[in-house]
Specification:
296 residues; mainly alpha; 12 helices
């Protein structure tokens, strides 16, 4: 039987044959976060793709701490342009994959017609607002680091003892994000908050990729409050990038993973290494996975 973690791979990125292995013990399969959220759940899951995106952004567009310390307009606009470009490209890819490339059909919309134009524009508007708030939170955190108000570990010390905290939290970030989202989401379902804030997110009766980050601005702020981890953990500025990129990318994919996985598993089940029975079990398991969960 394939390890449960293989079921979490994105087939069109990691579609390589895997030999059957012995089913891991209960401590590894429940609560499905391995050793406190590190290890295999990080590698054999979409987290690896999201981490690669975060690392690419961090390396290609490094932070200018000196410019951030003085609230330089050029630095702020650069981060806004980067974040808007990356976010819109990511969400557009998932939208196109479902409604134009027809990689899969929608669960509550078998005809796969896609959202109406007003609904799509509504979702895109609030999604872009989320990307702007992402930038505001990111710039503020980097400003605190650049101005010396927030301790951090320089990149050149990542392979020393000082960098151990950063390396550990890089692996544990998906588990932290799920924990943060669980309590934040439970809070936002308190009646008064749900009525005036969170209800906007639930206007989508047939969620599509852009609806993942379609939230009230107040909800965006509490959603991105996960970056507050850096107030308690002394680590590299990359932790801020990884934390926020994970928060931005996960919702888009989460709303369509069930359909996409089942689509590619049906394709792979025609091969010699993945039987239709395994494919069916994968689709069933995904159907019970939270739309934002990254480790379950």
């Amino acid at each position: 039987m394939l390890r449960i973690w293989c079921m979490k791979l994105i087939p069109f990125v990691f579609c390589c044959p895997l030999a059957p292995t012995k089913q891991p013990g209960w401590w590894f399969s429940w609560p499905k976060i391995g050793i406190f959220g590190v290890g295999l759940p990080f590698v054999y899951s979409p987290n690896l793709v999201w981490f690669a995106c975060a690392a690419l952004i961090y390396c290609c567009f490094p932070y200018d701490l000196e410019a951030a310390a003085r609230w330089d307009d050029t630095f702020i606009m650069q981060r806004l342009y980067i974040n808007l470009s990356c976010g819109i490209l990511w969400y557009s890819w998932w939208h196109l994959s479902i409604y134009y490339f027809h990689f899969a059909s929608r669960k509550f919309n078998p005809k796969n017609n896609g959202p109406t134009l007003p609904r799509l524009l509504h979702n895109m508007w609030y999604c872009v607002m989320g990307l702007v708030i992402w930038t505001a939170v990111e710039v503020t955190m980097i400003h605190l680091m650049g101005s010396g108000k927030l301790l951090y570990t320089p990149n050149e010390k990542l392979l020393t003892r000082e960098g151990f905290s950063t390396l550990w939290w890089v692996l544990a970030m998906p588990a932290f994000r799920d924990l943060h989202f669980y309590f934040a989401h439970r809070t936002i379902h308190i009646r008064v908050l749900y009525t005036y804030v969170h209800s906007l997110h639930h206007r989508n009766n047939d969620p599509e990729p852009f609806s993942g980050l379609c939230m009230h601005p107040i909800e965006h702020m509490y959603y991105f409050s996960c970056v507050g981890l850096s107030f308690f953990v002394v680590g590299s500025p990359f932790l801020i990038t990884w934390n926020l990129v994970h928060a931005v990318l996960a919702p888009a994919a989460g709303f369509v993973f069930e359909n996409m996985y089942c689509y590619f598993m049906r394709i792979l089940s025609s091969g010699s290494w993945c039987s239709p029975q395994i494919s069916s079990r994968i689709c069933i398991q995904i159907a019970f996975t939270s739309h934002t969960s990254s480790i379950v």
